[in-house]
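Example record

One chain of 164 residues, shown exactly as stored in the release files.
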Amino acid sequence: MKDLFPYLPLLFVAFGLVIVLVSIKGIINGRRFVRQAQRVQGVVSDVRTRFTGQGERLRANQWPVLTFTTLEGQEITTEAATTSGLGTGDETEVLYDPQDPTMAVPAENAGGSYGGIVVGLIAVVIGVVFFGFWDGGSRSGCEIQRPDGSFESVACPPGIGTGG
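Predicted structure tokens for this chain:
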């Protein structure tokens, strides 16, 4: 396990980059949806609450059920594709996919969020900081002090500065 510890910062960087890329993809897909979606007025006819986690980590997410009439006159009632803070009876602008009207979201939630990018970048920064400044013993070098008081990096003699 000790041999894996020096790679922990790289895991932070890798996971952070994955989070950033997935978030960017979500934003692009959200914006594509907004561009092609139809916009109509609707109402929240119900709210479904889903719980995730356990104990102190128990979280509730509210998924609004939207009722609206498409531009073609079809009445649709469907659970929104995103969570929302809207309550039953709230009127809202609804964006729906004209090819599949059951794919709908409150307009205020469309387009994606930058929160994932921020979280991913924080993970990357943590990994880079630890990777750049933490010396896990495997990358340490040796220095010698010159007569003028300055230091010079040199190759370490065998068995010194290698963490073993």
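Notes: The longest strand covers residues 38-52.
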